[in-house]
Design a protein that fits this description.
38% of the residues are buried. Helices cover 51% and strands 20% of the residues. The two termini are 31 Å apart. The protein has helices at 2-11, 14-49, 75-78, 145-148, 170-176, 215-222, 242-249, 256-263, 268-278, 288-330, 332-340, 345-382, 393-408, 410-418, 421-426; strands at residues 56-60, 82-83, 99-114, 119-127, 131-134, 140-143, 153-156, 166-169, 183-188, 191-202, 210-214, 227-228, 230-235, 282-286. The protein is elongated, with a radius of gyration of 33 Å. By secondary structure, the chain is α+β, with helices and mostly antiparallel strands. A hairpin with a 4-residue loop joins strand 3 (99-114) and strand 4 (119-127). The strands form 3 sheets. A 6-stranded mixed β-barrel has the order 3-4-11-8-10-9.
Amino acid sequence: MFLRLLLSSIMRSRQKKLLVVLAATLAAIVAAAMMTISLDIRDKMSRELKSYGANIMVTAAVQPLAEEAGPETTVADRTELIDESQVPKLKTIFWRNNILDFAPFLNAAVTASSRSGKEARLEAVGTWFEHQLVIPTGETVRSGLAPLRPWWDMEGRWPADGERAVVVGRDAAERLALQPGDTVNLGFESGSVDLPVVGVAGTGDEDDGRIFLPLPVVQQGLAVPGKIGHLEVSALTTPENELARKAENNPDSLTPKEFELWYCTSYVSSVAYQLEEAIPGALARPVRRVSEAEGAVLQRVERLMWLLTLAALLSAGLSISSLMSVSILERRVEIGLAKAIGAESSAVLRQFLAEGAVLSTLGGLLGFALGSLLAREIGSRAFGTVISIEPVVLPFTLALSLAMVWLSSGSAMATIIRLHPKEAIFGR
């Protein structure tokens, strides 16, 4: 009987019911699209932002006193060095899959000269260019400067793994009149070496004045075989909050529950902490200008999406409230008669709540389908990526649609409860 009354009620005033469904659908489209994008775009955007620099620097724990480090002091002179054999341990931490790119570095001051007779005192940086590293799990991962600095404007090419060749920063290349195909002589304190130039890189920062060599060449020139000065790590991280900032200041100040939550969340500080655990004697610190910029961008994008969702829900809610109020006024005689023959206000209220549930479900289902398509379109046009359909968004969309319809109908529901049969029937 209840279902028959419900169906009959829905079939009457079909235009108004369709308008309610349409309003719920429009709100659900925006909500579903924004939730889908929010779930899927964070990792994609974070990966994209990682192309603009490493966000964690790993050095040896022993650092020099400021007065001991002069302007010509290199990493090899002023710090304890890290064993190169420790680098694969980066991929053994809890958040190892969030370590996207990394490269070791060893700096040295050299005297560089070209065959054209130009000579300059430069900073040489030993590193991996495109290195295939075998990690403790037996897997092989790609690492090195090429994946870590994809935005460099490269004239020429990157040296192959194991190739004894150099990449010169654009400013250094101009000072020495070098271009790809030339040879450069690099003088260390222990001797000199001639290496071919295979690439000239425009970096837009201090690296423009440096020259990049294979790591073994610098290790040999400094007589520190198997050692590196520091590691740069690009990790996929979550924007920091109060818990992350508290932990970064002093992890020991956390309660066991807070520590577990922080340790098992990919904050840049928790990833750095785990890197220190994995590499004995290492000091891992976030690169603030990178990690903070990433967090700010991601938070602003998410805030914008939730504001759009809220605006859509408020707009649809106002429309539904008006439609439901009109529907109550049109059916006040029917409601009054039902109450006059013994129907409780709660029974009438249940019928209207059921109507709202049916209409919101229809709007939510349609909104989820269209919202998922909209999310894919936004992802393709605005972010240049494919957004996956997230089934987990469906129950949230349906629940949000139902809550919006019921809350928007609140004033109309209150009218049903207060409506007296005599007033409803005779209009007094």
